[in-house]
Amino acid sequence: MQLSYDYIVVGSGATGAIVANSLVEAGVNIAVLDVGVEDELYKEIIPNKDFISIRKEDENQQDYFLGKQFEGIPWETSKVGSQLTPPRNFLTQLTEKLIPFESDSFKPMESMAKGGLGGGWGLGCYEFSKPELDAIGLKESEMLPAYDAVANHIGVSGIKDDAAPYCLRDLKNVQPVSELEQNLSGVFTSYNKQKKNLNNKGIFVGRSALAVITKERDNRSAVQYKDMDFWSDTDKSSYRSWMTIDQLKGKSNFVYHKNCLVLKFKEHDLGVDVIVKRTDTSEEQIFSCKKLILSPGVLGTARIVIRSFDYKKEQLPVICNPYCYIPCLQWRMLGKEIEQKKTSLGQLVMYLDEKNDNFDVGMAALFSYRSLLLFKLIKETPLNYADARIIMQYLQSSFTIAGIHHPEKGSASKFIRMEQNANTYTGDILTGQYILSEQEIKTNESREKKIKSALNSLGCKPLKTIYTPHGGSIHYAGTLPFNDNGENFSIHSNGKLGGTKNVFVADGSGFKYLPAKGLTFTLMANAYNVAKNVLKNG
Amino acid sequence: MENKSVHIFEAERIGNYLLGINVQDSEKNTYADAMQKLNIQFSKYEQALWEKMIKSKSKMACIDAALAMKEPNNNVRRKLFTMLAILEASPNYTSYFLSRNFSFFYIFKIGLVGIRAVWRAAIGIFIINSIKRKCN
Ligand SMILES: Cc1cc2nc3c(=O)[nH]c(=O)nc-3n(C[C@H](O)[C@H](O)[C@H](O)COP(=O)(O)OP(=O)(O)OC[C@H]3O[C@@H](n4cnc5c(N)ncnc54)[C@H](O)[C@@H]3O)c2cc1C
């Protein structure tokens, strides 16, 4: 097996896939090292049909809707990954064993999968505003062309409406927006009628920009409105990071090594050694390269960097958007039949921009409820199951769920810490603490109140606010904050890891601030720029 | 084998409680398979509740209603919940779960079902309290 490459990329997720693609396009010789868990159980058994047809016809649907071990019938919902459907469970497989994380106040989700969390993300794309990019530590002039390049690669659909300043901005290469489902079109119509009043309060509603294609390209078909978005990727209309990896596998200058858990790196005069523990044999293996690009996700990078610097610093800051969701009852949809052809993705987004400066904006992504199956909703009611079923069958078309993300920055009470522990696979364990200040909690509550009031005026009556534990937003950043002084445990704005000559970081570890809007599109654009800088650097 | 026949019997009872019909063998078998895999364990109190529930459909409804309010994560409800999921993910019973156009007057049925649920919970609370006393 070849163990030496010009460039090694760690991780095949949202950022790793983009770095790998950019380097392969530049014609250099690269390898991706990844644990690379794949779905072996479900991919082949989910029919390429729409949700309703499957529900009415497929005798084997229990296998994937409930899971072969019935893991899709969630009883304890506090477990990390319990919100994933059985066919998406592979995303978090092996994480407890290989990369354990222990904390009472912080419950992050991580992935060891080919494609990483980018194999199951909700596809919401947001081009950040200048003030947001400044606060993160990124230059707008460098990010704008990178956003365009990434959009071109992954395929983004959307429309320039009131939401455009918060997501699309002047993005080029945008495909036409997907069709809006009935549940949300009532909300949108209502917004358009009361727009002036709502805009005065800082509320703006518009169509989401999504990494879903509406026109066929690159062996991917246009969205088929099968409403199976949480279960399968049969038509490949939604961008998943593993698609890039599969595409690259055919190229002569690209190698994908799975079963490789990267432990640490060691720099020497000729380049970098990458120390790997193979997950198939548990043996150690050493790869070498001229330049190493880390993109195993923010917590993964923290582990590798702390080990590589011999645990000299064990505690690092971390940022994660606070998240809660609000089931609402939309009267106008009561007792209606839900259309057969639709998608389950968040197609409408509400932004709360009180100061009208596109900074510290609150965000609520709106979803309807169907394809996650009614029994999970029935469980949330305080009624007996038999009666709850009758009531929920009637109400289900009128549920609109608002998922609220808050903007977030770091503080001394938000950190992760690496502890050595001989009982784990890697000899150490990540722990952490995530506590918001009284003031932060108050600010978030006030934002939620305003969003709830706006939802109410759009005909969506909020029923209750469900807070997920910190970590539940699945947006992580800020462990090695951007800093151009080259200090250890920081990242230069060109992506180079402080204290090293040839190690770069392409994930969100450097981001000093997290806007409420999803960060992944920006992560990918930054990864694109890091790849360019790596190449510039020789 | 003996366990399986117990589970098949449970499935029949629960299915009848949840949908008001006799469910098919395929769903009963899936329930038995699920029970084997999930291996739900009962405490003494839960066992006593379960024995009452399995004897009569109306007691099952009342105890479920009371637990939904007071102890939603009680393990006896996990059995009911598992069967509910199995029935939903079966092409034979989709009409009980998928949305459809209801007439305006259906809202009165919903109101009555709501009242029945509260009534069931009130009786159920009485039953579970008496079982709790016996178990202590
Ligand atoms: C259900 C869900 C919905 C989401 N929705 C959205 C959304 O709508 N919008 C949005 O912006 N974001 C969303 N996200 C978040 C998004 O998925 C992440 O921000 C993004 O995937 C992070 O990219 P990454 O490259 O940093 O990490 P990941 O995508 O997680 O990739 C990490 C990769 O590194 C590998 N790896 C890790 N450690 C090691 C190691 N030591 N050695 C070797 N390989 C390693 C893993 O195998 C994996 O391939 C969502 C996430 C989930 C799970």
Describe what you observe in this structure:
The complex is a heterodimer of chains A (538) and B (136). Chain A contains 13 helices and 24 strands. Chain A has helices at residues 14-25, 51-57, 61-65, 95-98, 130-136, 140-154, 182-200, 241-248, 298-308, 374-379, 385-395, 438-457, 520-536; strands at residues 4-10, 30-33, 101-102, 156-157, 174-175, 203-207, 254-257, 260-268, 271-278, 284-294, 315-317, 319-320, 323-330, 348-352, 362-368, 399-405, 408-409, 414-420, 428-434, 460-462, 466-467, 476-477, 503-505, 513-514. In chain A, strands 1, 2, 7, 8, 9, 10 and 23 form a seven-stranded mixed beta sheet that branches. In chain A, strands 6, 13, 14, 15, 16, 20 and 21 form a seven-stranded antiparallel beta sheet that branches. The longest helix of chain A is centred in the last third of the chain and has 20 residues, at 438-457. Chain A is globular, with a radius of gyration of 23 Å. The two termini of chain A are 26 Å apart. In chain B, 75% of the residues lie in helices and 0% in strands. Chain B contains six helices and no strands. The model of chain B has no long low-confidence stretch (mean pLDDT 96). The interface between A and B is large, with 41 and 49 residues. Flavin-adenine dinucleotide binds next to helix 1, strand 8, helix 9 and helix 13 of chain A.
Low-confidence stretches of chain B: none
The largest β sheet of chain A comes out as: 7 strands, mixed
Overall helicity of chain A:
25-40%
Rg of chain B, rounded, reads: 16 Å
β-strand amount of chain A: 15-25%
Distance between the first and last residues' Cα of chain A: 26 Å
Ligand catalogue: flavin-adenine dinucleotide
Number of helices of chain B: 6
Number of domains of chain B: 1
Proportion of residues in β-strands of chain B = under 5%
Provide mean pLDDT of chain A, rounded. Answer: 96
User: How many β strands of chain A by DSSP?
Assistant: 24
Kindly report the oligomeric state of this protein: heterodimer
- Please tell me what the overall shape of chain B is: flat
